From TrEMBL:
It is a multi-pass membrane protein. This is Uncharacterized protein. Keywords: Membrane, Transmembrane, Transmembrane helix. GO terms for molecular function: transferase activity. Pfam families: PEMT. It comes from Rhizobium mesoamericanum STM3625. InterPro entries: Phopholipid_MeTrfase. It is found in: Endomembrane system. GO terms for cellular component: endomembrane system. Its main location: membrane. Signal peptide: none annotated.
Amino acid sequence: MLKLPPPIWALLFLILTAGASYLAGWPVVPWVHSLFVGIGLIAVSFIAPVWALILFRREGTQINPTSETNNKLVTGGPFQFTRNPMYLGLVVLSLGVAVATGAILMFVAPLLVFATANWVHIPFEEAKMRRQFGPAFDDYARNVRRWL
């Protein structure tokens, strides 16, 4: 699962749940379906990841989560509030798509994005950070939550 980047997994989960929704006849949850709220969530989902990407570029460290090493432990910007702003953005993005469509099966996508990030990608990255940055990463992890 680590060979494909997390945004590709999110896209695959959205495509799979859209296909399943199509085959099921797009059953909708009326009290959750809101195009306006969905588009708002999608728009907001880009803030933390883009901020993080800009910060990574400025700090000169790797963006690829499967890189062998990272040049720097970045703890500023959105990383003050969450250790995983990019994954958080993917979860919120997929939730926004689900809310915008209102289709019951589309709500499986954000759950799958969360599960893949939380139990596959993040543990790999955190182990790498612990090996590379030791006590500095442990202190950071103690002070900043994994998600929010």
